[in-house]
Amino acid sequence: MDLGLSGKHAxxxxxxxxxxxxxxxxxxxxxxxxxxxxxxxxxxxEEVVGEIQATGRNAHAVKMDLADSTSMQALFQQANxxxxxxxxxxxxxxxxxxxxxxxxxxxxxxxxxxxNLTSVFLLSQLFVQQCLDHQKxxxxxNITSQAAFHGATTGHAHYAASxxxxxxxxRSLAREHASDGITVNNLALGIVxxxxxxxxxxxxxxxxxxxIPLGRVAQPKEMAEIATFLVSExxxxxxxxxxxxxxxxxxx
Length: 252
Prior knowledge:
Shape: globular
Distance between the termini: 28 Å
CATH class: Alpha Beta
Strand content: 15-25%
Structural class: alpha/beta
Strand order of the largest sheet: 3-2-1-4-5-6-7
Radius of gyration: 17 Å
CATH architecture: 3-Layer(aba) Sandwich
Order of helices and strands: EHEHEHEHEHHEHHHE
């Protein structure tokens, strides 16, 4: 199936590892030029860039701080200079800190909300402004979580709140800019085997598996393939929606 993605330019935040890395690679396989962001080791980001460039697509990595609006503006400036205006924004990067509500400080709460929710607002705003300036449509996909619906029982209430906030924001953004040809959707993940959660999985594997009707943890590539479809031309009639990829943890 031709997804109509060849030649497009996507910005993928947190694209150096985990689900973000697989999304970047999946998009490149469909002919997309990719700007990916990272916050930690540049070496990992450059490895992904190299894999994409080996397919003949343009790719580059930009260091970005989820808590710094100036860093986000620099991302768009560099992406435009390297490849041109982006057609797709995938808000994937985020943090998963642990702390039970009785122990959380205001700083813990604010830091998580800023990195997981405020960053989505700021990046989406920059993307929409760019689309309007260039008089073209675009696609935004936010990576959220089943925790936005179930809440958290393992000390991640601030994470759950940030991911739930994305849902309301995305619906509003979708309504405001549907007439401009800009679609906004969410992909709610269940439990995916990534560096972020691997140690928790090893400690409580039986607990996590008991919550998944399909009886197994997802692989990042599976999530990436769904994300790629949701930003493709085959998904043009979808906006303001949240799609569950949770192995049955969410059944709505």
